[in-house]
Structures are given as structure tokens and as C-alpha cells.
Amino acid sequence: MSHEGIRFSSKEDMAREAVADRQLSRAAVTPTKVRVLITEGKGLEIEWSDGHRSAWNFGWLRNACPCATCNEEREQQGRKPGQPKKKAAELLPMYAPPAKPTSAQAVGRYAIQFNWLDGHNSGIYSFDFLRRHCQCSECKFERGETAGAPN
């Protein structure tokens, strides 16, 4: 008897999947204000129609690139969106400049795209993707990514 395709999930995995699969309201994925803080080197801030506020730093955004190539690489390495690549142990680590875009532009009314300093620009960050990966303590708690109560 073959067990290929059978996956055993923990309660925590099932809770995370339920949060990821839930339908978000139109207001939850409709931004009222989008700020890309390139000059300050901070990141992306979005105020949503439902009153929620989200913020992501550029390092997280670059490591969460939703393009097919980056998704495949993350899956092969067992990383989640936003999780950095494991660094190889080096005697003298090489300096890597922090992730920063040279520009950003809207993609229709549903997404934002960055042109990164490293030349990468194929990731289209939908507002749905961004809201589902909000980095505030309340959302991370809801997804089971932090312990204790949200701040």
C-alpha cells in the first residue's frame, strides 16, 4: 500500500492553513493609503479600508518575493515567505548590502511591484498576499507565528 501524497499535519499546521485559506473581505484587501519609504530605507506601509495598518521592511519583502522562481527556491529550502536564506559558514563573511528597491509601481489596482537593487523585478505583491502576510503582532499571533497574546 502506497502512502504517497499523504501528509500528516499538527494542530498548529491546520490552524495556520485555516487562517491562510480564509476569505478576506474587500475592505481587508483594499488600501486607502500606500507608502513606499525608499528614501528612508524603511519599507512599505499600507492603511486598509477596514482600518487595519500594516508595515513590512524591505528585507522581509525581498525575501518574500512572490515570483515563481523565488517561490520554488523557498520551497526547496523549506523557508516561509520573508524568511532569509541560510548563510553559509564563511571564515570572512562578505558584506551584503541591505535589500532596497530602486523604484516601485502600482500594478493595476491589485498589487505593487518593486525593482530591487540586485536587479530582481519579477515579483508582483498582490494586496491580498500582503494582507495575508501582515507583520503586525496581532496578525502574526492569529497565524500562530508568535506565542503569548498580541501587543
From TrEMBL:
Keyword Iron: yes
Gamma-butyrobetaine hydroxylase-like N-terminal domain sequence ranges: 39-131
GO molecular function, one term: metal ion binding
Protein's name according to its UniProt entry: DUF971 domain-containing protein
Keyword Cell cycle: no
PANTHER family (UniProt xref): OS02G0197800 PROTEIN (PTHR35303)
Keyword set, alphabetical order: Iron, Metal-binding
Signal sequence extent: none
